[in-house]
C-alpha cells in the first residue's frame, strides 16, 4: 500500500528536495536538481523503482514526526516494544555535491534496525553498477553516480544494498548519501552529526528574519520555510512543487509535472515573501522573472524551468504505474506552450509590487514592461487557454480578461507612482475599455455572478481574485454576489473547487473528479474578510490550516470525501496563499495599492538592501567561524 500523500515530509538543500515517509523511507528524490531524473521513484511505482528506508525491523511501532523548530531538519521517532529510536534527516545547504544525511539515535532500550537502499536512476528504469571499496558503496550508471558512507556493514541483496544493526540508548549511527557526476571521484562524505547541526543553524538564522507573531505564526513560518526549500538557489526561481504526477483524482489521469516555475504565482509569491520580511528572496524571484520573460512577448510562456529553461517537452513514463495506479506519469509539461493572457497581468503586477519595496527597476526592465503592455493592447480581445491550463477549446475566460486589465492598470501605476514614462492616457482608455467589457460580458445576471467565460453559466474560483487585484471592490454588489455564489455552489464541505468537474470535460478536455483547490479556499477566506464576515473568514482559515499534516505541509488539493490530500506535494501555491491570508486576517499592512510593508532593512536601520545584505552575510560568516572553532562545520568530512 502507498503512503498517503500527507504522510510524507520534506527535506531539501535549495537545489532539490526529497520526500521522506513516516515509515522512514525516502520515496522520491531527483538529483542534482528539482527537475532532474529521479533516483528514488517508489512514490510513483513500487520498491523496484528505487527507495531508501531506515526503520525498525519490528513493525509493531508507533511513529511521531516533527521538524526541529523553524528548520528543515526532520525527526521521526519510532517507539517499539523494546525501545525508542529517532531518525534524523536533512540535506545540508549545498556547497558542492548534493548530500542526504541520516542519523539513527538510540533514545531508550534497544531496537533492531534495518536499512534498505535501492538506487535506480532514470525514474526507476536504470539499475546501476554497485560496488563496495574501503567501506564506501558506489553506484554508477550513465552520467549519474551515488556514494553511500556508513560505519555499518552493508551487503548486496536482490539488487538492493541492505544492513541490519542494533541501536541502544545513546548510540548514533550515521548514513551519508552523495550524488556526483560519474566521471568524477566520489566526494568525501561529511561528518553527519556536524552536518545536521550546521544545517539546523542555517535554517534557524534564516527563519529569524520573520517577525510575525499571532495565532497563525507557526503555520506561516512553516509555509515560508517550505517556499525557501522550493527555491532553486542559483537563480531565485521557485518551483511549484518538488514532485510530478501526484494525482488530482486518485486512479485518474489528472497528473502533471509541477517541478517548474509558474508566472501565475509571481505576484502572490512576491507578496508572501515580502510579508514575511524576506525581501532578498523576493528580489531574487523578481530578477528570475525578468530574465525568464525577456524577449519577444509573443513567445512568453506560462512557466519555465528553474534556470529559466523554455523547453519543457511532455512525455509519459510508461514503466511507472503511478501513485495508487494513477496513470499516466508525466515528465515535462505541455501547458508551457499554451496562450494564457492572465500571465501578462501577473508579471506586470509582480514587477509593480517589487518596485514599491525593492526600488525602481532599471531602464531595460521598464522597456520590457512597455513591450508587454503593447502585446496586451493587441491581443487582449483574443480567446485563450485560461488560468487552469485547460486542454479543451480556447475561450474568452473572464479571469483572463480581468488580468489583462491588471497588466494595463499596473503600467499606469508605474507611471503615476514610480515616475516611469509611457503613453498613460492611451493606457487609461484601454483600461476602461477592458473593464467595461468584463463587467458587461463576464457578469451573468441569471446566475447573479461573474462566470467562468463570456456567455457561461459556470462558476470559477479564479474570480475570487477580482477584489484581491483591485478590479472591483468587495463592496460592489456584483462582487459580493459572486463570492457568495462560489461559497454556496462551488464548494465541498466548505472548501472551494476550481470549477465543477461534472461540467469540466467540455472545458478542460479531461474526465474525472478533482479535489478542492486549497489556494482558492484561502482566497475565499480573504474575500469573506473583505466583505466584513471576519468570524467566517477566521473559521475558514483555521479549517484550512487544520488540513496540513502534523508537520505543517499542504498539497495542492484536498478530497473532502476521502479526507486526504491530493496533488503534487508540498505545493508552493497553497503555502503562498496561506501566508497571504494569515497576514490579511491578522490585520497586518498590505503590500499592494500603495500601502507598503516597511522593508526589513529599513526596520533594522540599514539605508538600503545592499547594506542589509552585507550586514547579514557578515553575521552569518561570524556564526560560521564560531562553529568552525567549535568543530561544527558542514565542510568537515569523514576520514
Description:
The chain is of the alpha+beta class. Helices cover 34% and strands 21% of the residues. It has a 15-stranded antiparallel sheet that branches. The chain has a three-stranded antiparallel sheet with strand order 26-27-28. It has a two-stranded antiparallel sheet with strand order 16-17. Helix 8 runs antiparallel to helix 9 and helix 14 (534-545) runs antiparallel to helix 15 (572-585). The model is unreliable at 592-601 and 620-635 (pLDDT under 50).
Which descriptors apply to this entry?
17 helices, Beta-galactosidase, Chain A, domain 5, globular, three-stranded antiparallel beta sheet, 15-stranded antiparallel beta sheet, Glycosyltransferase, 639 residues, alpha+beta, 28 strands
Summary of the model, kept short:
By secondary structure, the protein is an alpha+beta fold.
State the domain count: 2
C-alpha Rg (nearest Å): 25 Å
What percent of residues are in strands? 15-25%
Q: What is the mean predicted local confidence, pLDDT? A: 90
Helix content: 25-40%
* CATH domain class of the largest domain: Mainly Alpha
Uncertain runs = 592-601, 620-635
The CATH architecture of the largest domain can be given as: Alpha/alpha barrel
The CATH topology annotation of the largest domain reads as Glycosyltransferase
Termini separation comes to 41 Å
How can the largest sheet be summarized?
Answer: 15 strands, antiparallel
Shape descriptor reads globular
Structural class from helices and strands? alpha+beta
Give the number of helices: 17
Strand elements, count: 28
Amino acid at each position: 500500500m502507498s503512503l498517503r500523500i500527507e504522510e510524507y515530509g520534506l527535506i531539501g538543500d535549495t537545489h532539490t528536495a526529497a520526500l521522506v515517509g513516516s515509515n522512514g523511507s525516502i520515496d522520491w528524490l531527483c538529483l542534482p536538481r528539482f527537475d532532474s531524473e529521479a533516483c528514488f521513484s517508489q512514490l510513483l511505482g513500487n520498491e523496484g523503482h528505487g527507495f531508501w528506508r531506515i526503520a525498525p525491523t519490528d513493525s509493531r511501532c508507533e511513529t511521531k514526526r516533527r521538524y526541529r523548530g523553524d528548520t528543515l531538519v526532520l525527526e521521526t521517532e519510532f517507539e517499539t516494544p523494546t525501545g525508542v529510536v529517532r531518525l534524523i534527516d536533512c540535506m545540508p545547504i549545498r556547497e558542492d555535491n548534493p548530500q542526504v544525511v541520516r542519523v539513527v539515535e538510540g533514545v531508550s532500550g534497544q531496537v533492531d534496525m534495518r536499512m534498505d537502499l535501492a538506487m535506480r536512476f532514470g525514474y526507476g528504469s536504470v539499475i546501476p553498477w554497485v560496488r563496495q571499496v574501503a567501506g564506501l558503496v558506489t553506484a554508477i550508471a550513465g552520467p549519474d553516480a551515488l556514494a553511500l558512507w556508513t560505519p555499518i556493514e552493508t551487503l548486496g541483496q536482490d539488487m538492493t544494498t541492505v544492513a541490519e544493526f542494533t541501536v541502544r540508548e545513546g548510540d548514533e549511527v550515521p548514513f551519508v548519501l552523495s550524488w556526483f557526476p560519474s566521471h568524477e571521484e566520489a566526494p568525501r562524505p561529511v561528518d553527519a552529526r556536524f552536518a545536521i547541526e550546521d544545517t539546523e543553524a542555517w535554517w534557524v538564522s534564516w527563519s529569524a528574519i520573520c517577525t510575525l507573531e499571532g495565532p497563525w505564526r507557526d503555520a506561516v513560518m512553516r509555509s515560508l520555510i517550505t517556499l525557501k526549500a522550493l527555491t532553486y538557489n542559483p537563480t531565485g526561481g521557485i518551483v511549484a512543487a518538488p514532485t510530478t504526477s501526484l494525482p488530482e483524482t486518485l486512479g485518474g489521469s489528472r497528473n502533471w509535472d509541477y517541478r517548474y516555475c509558474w508566472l501565475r504565482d509571481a505576484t502572490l509569491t512576491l507578496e508572501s515573501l515580502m510579508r514575511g520580511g524576506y525581501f532578498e528572496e523576493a528580489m531574487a524571484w523578481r530578477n528570475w522573472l525578468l530574465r525568464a520573460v525577456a524577449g519577444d512577448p509573443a513567445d512568453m510562456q506560462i512557466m519555465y524551468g528553474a534556470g529559466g529553461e523554455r523547453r519543457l517537452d511532455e512525455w509519459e513514463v510508461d514503466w511507472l504505474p503511478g501513485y495508487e495506479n494513477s496513470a499516466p506519469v508525466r515528465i515535462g509539461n505541455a501547458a508551457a506552450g499554451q496562450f494564457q493572457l492572465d500571465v501578462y497581468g501577473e508579471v506586470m503586477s509582480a514587477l509593480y509590487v517589487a518596485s514599491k519595496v525593492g526600488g525602481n527597476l532599471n531602464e531595460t526592465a521598464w522597456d520590457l514592461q512597455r513591450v508587454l503592455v503593447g502585446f496586451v493592447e493587441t491581443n487582449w480581445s483574443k480567446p485563450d487557454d485560461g488560468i487552469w491550463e485547460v486542454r479543451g477549446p480556447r475561450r474568452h475566460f473572464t479571469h483572463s480578461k480581468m488580468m489583462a486589465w491588471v497588466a494595463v492598470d499596473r503600467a499606469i501605476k508605474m507611471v503615476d507612482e514610480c515616475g516611469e514614462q509611457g503613453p498613460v492616457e492611451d493606457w487609461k482608455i484601454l483600461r476602461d475599455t477592458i473593464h467595461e467589457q468584463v463587467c458587461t460580458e463576464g457578469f451573468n445576471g441569471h446566475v447573479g455572478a461573474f462566470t467562468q467565460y463570456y456567455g457561461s453559466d459556470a462558476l470559477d474560483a479564479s474570480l475570487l481574485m477580482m477584489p484581491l487585484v483591485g478590479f472591483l471592490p468587495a463592496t460592489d454588489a456584483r462582487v459580493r454576489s459572486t463570492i457568495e455564489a462560489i461559497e454556496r455552489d462551488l464548494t465541498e464541505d466548505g472548501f472551494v473547487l476550481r470549477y465543477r468537474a461534472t461540467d469540466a470535460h467540455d472545458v478542460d478536455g479531461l474526465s474525472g473528479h478533482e479535489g478542492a483547490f486549497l489556494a482558492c479556499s484561502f482566497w475565499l477566506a480573504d474575500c469573506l474578510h473583505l466583505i466584513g464576515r471576519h468570524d467566517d473568514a477566521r473559521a475558514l482559515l483555521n479549517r484550512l490550516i487544520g488540513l496540513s499534516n502534523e508537520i505543517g505541509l499542504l498539497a495542492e488539493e484536498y478530497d473532502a470525501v476521502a479526507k486526504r490530500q491530493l496533488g503534487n506535494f508540498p505545493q508552493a501555491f497553497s503555502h503562498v496563499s496561506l501566508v497571504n491570508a494569515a497576514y490579511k486576517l491578522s490585520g497586518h499592512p498590505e503590500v499592494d495599492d500603495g500601502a507598503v510593508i516597511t522593508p526589513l532593512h529599513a526596520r533594522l536601520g540599514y539605508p538600503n538592501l545592499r547594506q542589509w545584505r552585507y550586514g547579514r552575510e557578515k553575521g552569518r560568516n561570524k556564526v560560521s567561524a564560531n562553529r568552525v572553532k567549535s568543530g561544527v562545520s558542514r565542510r568537515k568530512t569523514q576520514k
